[in-house]
Amino acid sequence: MAELFARPETSKAGQHSTNLAELLRAYQGKRRRVGDALGISEQTAYRWL
After folding, report:
1. How wide is the angle at C-alpha 20 spanned by C-alphas 15 and 25, nearest 5°?
2. What is the reported pTM?
3. Angle, CA of 23, 25 and 30, to the nearest 5°
4. Under 8 Å between Cβ of 34 and 27
5. Torsion sign across C-alpha atoms 36, 41, 45, 48
């Protein structure tokens, strides 16, 4: 039964943090600019980390 609820290897949270890490490097750590690029708020970008 536990297998039914196991998290997949590539969860959304994992995908977000990977994409954010790449964007943060590209934008020199500026969360606001990353948020603008993704169409999300700076706070949402921070939460996704």
Report:
1. 140
2. 0.59
3. 75
4. yes
5. negative
